[in-house]
Amino acid sequence: KGELRMQSLTFDDAGMYQCIAENMHGIIYANAELKIVASPPTFELNPMKKKILAAKGGRVIIECKPKAAPKPKFSWSKGTELLVNGSRIRIWDIGSLEIINVTKLDEGRYTCFAENNRGKANSTGVLEMTEATRITLAPLNVDVTVGENATMQCIASHDPTLDLTFIWSLNGFVIDFEKEHEHYERNVMV
């Protein structure tokens, strides 16, 4: 099928490859360069976030994306405690750390360790818990006669250290209040 597969590549496999296709009407060529990369893990281009926020009772994913070739093996620690997969904590193959049902006890310094046959590196961030955002007054179903006006309310509680934005949608499409200002009006209570 015109496919070339290579396994267990080494630096000697790097170079310009050429595919030649021919039949009784002629011959054509196509070229491609194969580069072999190998590097120890490094977080220089993509360090972990220094501050990670997680909502109380929610789920958080802390990303760990070092540059490395070959793909590194990952491990995590919280402070000096080495983390392992459990009912609430999961280390993904791609390096991310997932914590579900976040509690105050989950706050702290998290370090991702990446290691391959070229070396090792680590990066650290601090997880802080915030109060979960909750709808305290949800919009109610409304029956309105055609031509009349309607008002729908939505009130939420949230962590005071974070901003809150309300987004309204109609049948799954976000309402653009600037474009549809003659039909919709947003009242914000402070």
Automatic annotation (TrEMBL):
Query: Among its keywords, does the record have Repeat?
Result: yes
Record-annotated Ig-like domain positions: 41-128
* Family annotation (Gene3D superfamilies): Immunoglobulins
Q: Which InterPro entries match?
A: Ig-like_dom, Ig-like_dom_sf, Ig-like_fold, Ig_I-set, Ig_sub, Ig_sub2, Striated_Muscle_Regulatory
Pfam families, per the entry: I-set (PF07679)
Query: Listed GO cellular component terms?
Result: membrane
Question: What is the first-listed, main subcellular location in coarse terms?
Answer: membrane
Which compartments is it annotated to reside in? Membrane
List keywords of the entry alphabetically: Disulfide bond, Glycoprotein, Immunoglobulin domain, Membrane, Repeat
Annotated SUPFAM superfamilies: Immunoglobulin
Q: What PANTHER family would the database entry show?
A: CONTACTIN-1, TITIN
- Protein name as annotated: CNTN1 protein
Q: Provide the species name.
A: Neopipo cinnamomea
